[in-house]
Amino acid sequence: MPKIQLLSEDLINKIAAGEVIERPASVVKELMENSLDAKATSIIIEIENYGKDLISVRDNGEGMDETDARNSMVRHATSKIKDVQDLFSIHTLGFRGEALASIAAVSTMSITTKQQGRMEGFQITMEAGRIIQEGIIGAEEGTTIQIKNLFFNTPARKKFLKTDSVELRHIIDVIQRYALINHQVSFRLLHQGNELINSPSMADLRSKVASIYGIKAAKEMLGVQYDHEGIRIYGLVGKPSQSRNDKSQQAIFVNKRWIKNEDISTAVYDAYHSLLFVNTHPLLVLGLELDPARIDVNVHPTKSEIKIEQKEAVVNAVFTAIKEALQSHNLTPTVEMEEQLTFGTPRRTLPKTGIKYAFDSSAQAVFTVNESSSGSEYASAEEVSIAPEQGFPEDIPATVAFPALKILGQVHKTFFVAETAGGVFFIDQHAAHERLLFETLKRQFAGKKIARQALLFPKVLECTLEEIQILRQYAEEIAALGVEIEDFGGASQVVKAVPAVLGRSSVEEVMAGIFARFGEPGSGRGGVRAEEVLSDMACKAAIRAGQSLSPKEAQALLDEMQRAEVFSHCPHGRPVAKSFTPHEIKKWFYRG
Ligand SMILES: Nc1ncnc2c1ncn2[C@@H]1O[C@H](COP(=O)(O)OP(=O)(O)OP(=O)(O)O)[C@@H](O)[C@H]1O
Ligand SMILES: [Mg+2]
């Protein structure tokens, strides 16, 4: 007796629904995508009981006629592709013709729709995939789709839903992401009548980001622009100082589709390499425009994964685009150029109490500056901070270098304090020195000129098979790092020379660092692995916290920072400097 059965349409739809519709947020995503494909400029999402009782998505898009409305809920029915050719050149968010059928199979769904210019609209209601009511109805132009009792007939799926707040978070996330990349479309989310998202149509991406991530974040984020050989990249990326402990404010889109792609994400992190502190994540709204014929979006039913033809070119473009954005901006945290530019203009932000504090400049205890570092005598803090004629440039370019600073002293043998007309800086001596050494080593590495030091007594290392494999695979990079190694056969490797900047590390430590860094999985683009070894070397060789510095040494470090290209963070992502503007300092003391 044959055992193979042909499954019923109902069961097929339920199986498909299992893949596409995982949770209420998946319904919201599919319906919004349909609205965007229908060229809507306004999308209003209303939910009740975290989406479990009702999800309604209303748009002002092109609508459907009666026949299309009926067919829209049939599985494998779509207006978006016609033949195989179309499948390999997708220009819309949907194309599989299964979202509505899948949702209808596990809910009660009604569609109310009216095409533009038509007198009447059409409404159709289905329960578990069967039509229970349909007819002509008065309606606004566009489409409203209502889903009630989601998963009522698939109790297992209902049981696996997370807590209400997690499900709501997913809904908010997916709406925010689509709102970000469609800045000209207005999005609203209402939960039990309370407005949770109101993101109006905006003229540009930055304004849209402001409506979602907040004005301050949007203002600080750096613009990305890249257009080369058919790859266009645009968007906004956060400064390292804006990084977060999670990835919730990261959104990457390919042809306006929100996607997850490991290769693109790795390229992003590689571009931030040495600017992020461990386990922190940059803010991102990144759009890629690629030729639809060069990507395959038909990888997974949720359409959030893609395969990219010529992946290397795309990831390199992402890497370059972000790197350029980061390099062309001043990344020092809290150095507000705006503050500096408006500096000298008296501000009155505090309520006037009528009390005037007498300020005796002669009685101010300014840090004593060692005679060796002070050519010119410093005026009192008050005079310094309000005199606009302190030589402040009228126009500070965006790529401004570290400002010229005057050293005031060292605190806790860890930080030094310096000042400029724009404010007071606290500088982490270890982080600053580490960054400078790292930049020098990187330059030397690029030119294959890392100074090496021959060992008086070459060191024999017994290596594991993996370590020998690393030495062979990365022989060139390891040599460029300043390590000279000879293979003695078997497990024995003889280290004959090591980088001159060894700092406090032993030969074994340097080699262990090399094995650890090169053994890590990762892309290795832009010599990222070698850079990690260099950053370890810089860390070991840099001035430590707790080390006394003479003002002369501190000033020399500052002078070097001024000449450096990257100075905002140590190679492990810790900030080098923190500044306080005169305005902020005055606020501490209620001086308006
Ligand atoms: N909001 C809408 N406005 C106008 N037409 C719509 C709307 N929603 C759905 N449609 C029509 O219904 C069809 C079926 O929608 P459905 O989401 O099931 O499939 P799809 O979008 O074509 O593909 P996918 O399954 O990948 O989403 C669409 O191709 C479209 O023609
Ligand atoms: Mg669709």
Brief rundown of the structure:
The chain has 20 helices and 22 strands. It is of the alpha+beta class and 592 residues long.
Give an account of the 3D structure.
Strand 4 and strand 5 (130-137) form a beta hairpin. The longest helix is centred in the N-terminal third of the chain and has 18 residues, at 164-181. This protein is elongated. The chain has 20 helices and 22 strands. Mean pLDDT is 82; it is low at 334-400. Helix 1 (9-20) crosses helix 5 (99-105). The protein is of the alpha+beta class and 592 residues long. Strands 5-4-3-6-2-1-7-8 form an eight-stranded mixed beta sheet. Strands 9-10-13-11-12 form a five-stranded mixed beta sheet, with helices on both faces. It folds into four domains: 9-199, 2-Layer Sandwich (Heat Shock Protein 90); 205-327, 2-Layer Sandwich (Ribosomal Protein S5, domain 2); 340-431 and 546-588, MutL, C-terminal domain, dimerisation subdomain (formyl-coa transferase, domain 3); 433-541, 2-Layer Sandwich (Ribosomal Protein S8, Chain: A, domain 1), CATH 3.30.1370. The chain is 34% helix and 22% strand. Bound molecules: adenosine-5'-triphosphate and magnesium ion. Magnesium ion binds at residues 30, 33-34, 94, 99. Magnesium ion is lined by residues 30, 33-34, 94, 99.
